[in-house]
Structure prediction request, 489 residues.
Amino acid sequence: MNSIRRILATALMLSSTQAALAAGPRPDAINLAARDCPARDDIPRDATCMRATVPEDYDNPTGRTIGLDIVILRAKRREGHGAPLFVFQGGPGDRTTFSAGDESATWANLRHTHDLVFVDQRGNGETPNLNCTAETATAPSLATDLFPAAPLAACARRLAESADLARYTTTDAARDVDNVRAALGFAQINVVAYSYGTRLAQELLRRDDAAVHAMLLIGPEAPALAVPAGMALVAQQSLAAIIDRCKADASCAATWPDVAGDLERLQQRLAHGSFGLRAAGGRPGTAIGAGIVASYLRSHLYSASAAATLPRSIHALSDEHRDQAELSAIAAWRKGFDTWLPLGMYMAITCAEDLPFVDVDAERRAAEGTFLGSYRVDQQAVACRAWPRAQPNAAVHTPVVSGVPTLLLVGEFDPATPSRFAPGIVASLAHGRTIVVPNRGHDMSEEWRACLGKISTSFLETADETHLDTACVGRLHMPSFVTTRVPTN
Prediction:
C-alpha cells in the first residue's frame, strides 16, 4: 500500500510539474549530478550535494559549460511536504551554498515540511570562480581605493582567458535557477532573498512567476535602483537618523553631547584628504584615504548593533588627537574587504547592469556636502571602464508584474536599499506587501526569532501576505548605544 501511495504521489507531482512548466518558458536541458559534499562546517551533515552543468552562453548550448554547486537540506518529515525554499544571497557574489548552515537554523521550523535548496550563482562557485583577491591583495592603493582600477583590470584580463564575462548577469542567473528547479522536479518553489539576491528573485519572477509559490524579499533592491546611484545622499540621511536617535537617548546624549558637532568636524577632515595611521613608536605609517574612512562608517549603517557604535566612532575620528585606535580598525576592515565582497562577481553584475544607467555627473552634484561624497560613484565608474561587460539590459530596471504573493522587509534606516523604493516594487505586484521595520538597517537578523522570523515563516507557509500578525514589529528597539571612553593617541 505504501509503495502504491508513493507511485501515485510521484505521478501527481510529475503531472503538476508538467502543468506548471507549460505555463512558463520551456526549461533548458541541463546535466544534474550527485557529488560528495565538501568537508566544511557550513554544510550540515545531512545535506545532499549536487552540481548542475549549464551552458555559459545559452545562445550557444554546445559551447563552454559552467558548474553550479547545489546543497539541498531535505525536509525532516517524509510526508506533507510543501514547496521547497530556495535561498538567494546578496553581494552580488556571496556564495549561497556557504550559507546553508546558518540558513538551516534560520528556517528550522519550515524545514520540518520544506526542503531547503541553495544554488550558487554562476561565477561565484568553483567553475568558474570570478575572484579578484589575488590581484587586489597586493595593490599599493588599498589604503585609498575600494575598487582599485588597475588591479581589477588585470583581474578581468586573467578571468577573460577562461570565462566570457559578459555572460555573468542576473538574467542568465535567473535562467540557471529556473532550469535547476525544473531539473529537480519542483513544480513551484518558495523564494527567500537577501539584498542583491532580491534582484535575482525578481528576475526569476519576471521569467516564470508560475513557478513561484511565495517570495520573501529582505532588504529588497528595487528595479529602479542602479548601484551606486543615490548612495551618498541615502547614507547621509541614514546617519542623520542615527544621530537623532543618539540625541534622544539619555545615555548617548550624555556621553556624546555634541555628536552633531563631531560629525561636522569629521566631514571637514574628510573633505581635506587622508588620515594618518601611525606606526609603532609614532613613526609615519599608512595614509588612509577619506573615502575608505567614509565607506567604513557607511558599512556600520547596515546593522542596528553596528550603527549603535557610530556616535563613538565619529567622536574618535573627528579629532586627530584621538583617532588612532579607530583608524587601526578601519585598516583591518579594508584589508578584509576583498574577502567579504567577491569583486569579480560584483564587477560583472554592476558594470553591466548598474553603471550604464547611472548619471555620474548628476551623482557627483547630488553627493556634495555628504560624508561619503562622490567617492563610491567615482571608484566604480573608473573601475568599470576596463571591465568586459554585457550589453546594458534596461529590462532589469523595469517593474516586475506578477500576482505571486510577495512580502518585503525593509529597514527604516537601510543605507543600501532604502524604504522609499519599496512602493515602486509592490505597485506592480497584485499581492505585494511592505513592512518597514523600525530601528533596523539592511540586516534584519537581530531579534529575528522573536519577531520577523515568525512573520516570515507564517507568510511562507500560507502565501498570505494580508493576514499576518505584525504587532511585534512596533516593539523592535534600537540597541543601546556604545558609550565607552575614547582614548587619546
The chain has a mean pLDDT of 91. The first helix runs from residue 2 to 23. The domain at 2-128+166-224+399-475 is CATH 3.40.50.1820 (Rossmann fold). The chain has 18 helices and eleven strands.
